[in-house]
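chain below, 431 aa
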Amino acid sequence: MPQSSIQHRLLRTVMSVNVVGSLLTAMLVGYLVSRSVSSLMDSTLQESAEILYGLVQPLASSDTDATMVMPTVPHEEQLVWQVVHGASNRLVVRSSKAPEQPLLAQALDGFADSPQDWRVRSMPLGANGKYLYVAQASNERQQHEWEAMIAIVGMTWLIAAASAAWLSRRARAELEPLERLSNAVRAYDPLAGQPLPAVTRRELVPVQKSIEELGGRLARLVERERAFSAHAAHALRTPLAGLEAQLALALREATPQTAPRLRQTRLAAQRLGRVVSSLLSMFRSTGKLELSPVDLGGLFSALSVGQVSVTVAQDTAFMADANLLAAALSNLVDNSVRHGASHLTVAAMATAQGVCVSVQDDGAGIAPDTLHKLRAGLADAEHQGLEGLGLWLASLVARAHGGALQVHALPQGTRVDITLSAAHHEPPPKS
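prediction:
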């Protein structure tokens, strides 16, 4: 099951914190702005009332019962005002846009909210019992508050978006050294003895050292296993050679009834000897190829192919480790013989990837389910998916040459391709 990405989790966390923080900040700032704007407009009402106090004093001294309307040119009044008689709550004089009824039901000294949705500043006009009302429409005040809140909240969100983009870019930049270390670990070969590239972040230094220590332990373990396998293969080689010689002598003295069994036993001993030789070649290689021009015809003339006939076609010159390639081909021949092949066609041809050495037989072929397991085992470089050591050893030889091994099922028989990298292709000499 795929695990979640550290980068995506970090970015989601940064974005979540940024969004929640911005939302809370915007709400708090909006509330404070609303209070500040309300306080500022109350101060405006207060100052307007103080200015009008002296201007409407002469008008307020009139004792007429009719309500006077302050004449003025047509204009849009942001503030309206009234002068009322405090005891009777009768309107004495008003501005042109002021309501025709008193703004407050009862005169008072201070701020109040009118039932007609006005914010009113009321103040007494001397000792004659009259009051000055200066008012502003509540919906206008709310509109100013909302405009200020929207502007502040919009700027807050704009800053938050810019901060989130910057934080996301910085988070990706800070995770780049981890990605570079991951790529370096992917290409890291402990057996080559090369250390990992230096890291640029202090937190990654312990990770790098741990990986190098683990690689060192694995390299030492592989070297010990390689040394043990080489020693075991060498120790088996001599008794196998003696066993094959004894079987050869026994065949000369065998009766017609026992000769077939002895012959089969000798073939099995020879096959085991070839596997041991291949193991010795692999473990003696130590990762450094001894490249030389390869002649497939000469190579097969030195191999033991039993009763099977071999046709060799080589249309390109190439370089390879002849001993390793011979071990791989020997195992492929052995596989073909065991699956009933009577004829092999071996060819070497140039490809875009380098050189392809193919071994095609006319044996029983491979069942589809078995072919799937073989390909899966070859792709994972695991012997568990392969039947026997032959294909596994041949695959190791291909990988040692920078290539790969592929198995193809044919209508009649099987074809195995060993691809060698372009570095091992030897161009033909110039004439």
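The chain has a mean pLDDT of 79. The chain has three domains: 6-154, 190-288, 290-431.
thats it, cya
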